[in-house]
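Let us practice reading a record.
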Amino acid sequence: MPRRWVTAVLVLFLVSAAFGVWSWRRWLGEFDLVVYNGRVFDGERFLPRWVCVGVRQGRIKRVGFLYGAHSRRWLNAAGNVVSPGFIDVHTHVERNIPRSGPFRAPNFVQQGVTTLITGNCGTSRVDIRDLLAGLEENGSQVNVGTLVGDNSIRQRVVGDAARQATKDELQRMRRLVEDNMAGGALGISTGLAYAPGVYSTRQEVVELARVAARYRGLYATHLRDEAIGGDEALEEALQIGREARIPVHISHFKVAARAQWRTAQRRLDRLERQRAEGLSVTLDAYAYNASSTSLDILLPPNLRGRVRSRGFFQDPAHKQAPLEAMLAQLRQNGFPDYSHARVAYFGADRSVEGKSIAELAGVPLGNGEPNLHRQAETVLRLLSRGGAQMIYFDMSEDDVETIIRAPQASFGSDSAVRSEELHFVHPRGFGNFPRILARYVRERQVLTLEAALRKMTSLPADTFHLPGRGRIREGFAADLVIFSPERIEDRATYEKPLEPPSGIYYVWVNGVEALRDGQLTAANGGRPIRPR
C-alpha cells in the first residue's frame, strides 16, 4: 500500500477515535464528581467493580462505566465500599436544632450517616412546618426528617395531668397532629413508657394515629413496656396499627428484662405473623446490650413524672408505697439489684456520674446481700434532685444479635448530637453504625455486609417513605459514604463515649462533601426531608 494511503488511514483512524471520544463524553455529559475503583453498593446489592458513580448538581447523574467522561473531580475509592449514606431512623436531635444558624451533627457524619429521623419516643417540636423551614433557610450538615410526638402534643394540651384526655382535649390534640402532618411530619410517635404519654389510653392513641394515617404517615412507638410486660405492650402497638390502619414501627426493639432474656425471637415471630395478615410492621435497633433513658423508668408506670412533684422522698408517708412497688418491679424483671443501672448524666452533682445505683447506695446488709431498700431510696433521692439520664445494662447479647438479624430491622442510634462536655453518655452516639459493620459483620458474622448495608440505606428509606434516598440510582440524591470494611471500627466506649470511629473516609450530603479524608468539613449540604 502506498505510503500516502497508510497516512490517510491513520489520520482517519485518529479522527474517528477523537470523534468517538468526543461523542462518548458528550453522551455522558459533565460531572462535578466521579467516584471510581470502588465496590459500589446500590442500596440492594453490590455492582460490578468497573461501575463508577457520577454526581452532578447534588444528584446521582449516572451509574456505570464513566471512564473518559469529563468531570471536575475524579476520586479513586481505592477498592473501598461506596454506599448510599446511612439513614439513622431513631434520633433525638430536635433540641439540638438552632432557631438561627446551621444545624451541625458531627457525631453522625463521622459514622457515615447522612439522614436523621428525629421526633421519636413521643417527643418532638410541635411547629414542624417552622422547624423544616428553618433548616432550609439556615442550612444543615445532614438531612433531617421528623415525626410529631404524642407526648409533646399531650403536654401542650393536657399538661402533666395523670388522667385520660377529655373529649375537647382530644379534639385539640387531633388538630395539632393534623397541623404538623400537613407541615411535613413523616408520622406520629409515642413514648408510652414516659409521662405524660404513660397516661394515654389506647383509644386516645388510635384517634391521633388515624389523623397521621390520612397523610400516609406511620406510627412509631416506644412501647409501654420493654421489659416483663413487653408482650402485652407489643400487642397494644399492633392493635393500634390495626384500628388506625397505619403502618407500625417499633422503636429500639429489645427485651429489657433479665427474666425474659433470649425470648426476642418469640416477639419477632409475633410481628411476622402480623405481617402475614396484612399489617405493615417494621422495627429498629441499636448494636448494644445496654440502653439509655431517664431514671423515671425505674418507677412503676403510675408514678412516672409524679415523684418529684409530690415530694415522695422527703415525706416517709409517701415514700413506702413507691419503694415497695419499685422493688416488686425489679424482682419481676429478674434483676437482683440496681447494679445494672448506671448514672450517665446528673446535673446537680457530676461526681455521681459513671456510678451504678448500687454503688451510690453504699453499705450492704450484714449478711453481704445488697440493701435493696437503700438502693430504691437512692433512686428517689436522685429524682427529688431533678432526675438523671441513665445507662441500663439490661439486655442479652443473644437477643441483640437475634433482633439485628430480623429482615425488617433497620438501625437507629437513639442519640442526640454529642458534645465534649458529656463524659458518661452512651457510646452509641458515636459508634452505632461502625459497630454494626465491625463487630456484627466482620467479626461475629451475624450479618453479611450486603444485608447490613441494606438495613442502613434502602430499607429505612422505604420504611419512612424518604423520596429519592437510600439508593445509588440515577436521579437520587448524592448522599454517599466511602469506608473500608476491613478497617472500620467503633472506638467509643462506656468509659470514653466521645471517641469518633475509624475507617470512614468520605461522606457527601446532597453532593456536598461533609467528610474528607476522615476530617469534617465546614460545609452544610443537608436538607429538610418532607413526605412525598
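A brief commentary: The first strand starts at residue 30 and ends at 31.
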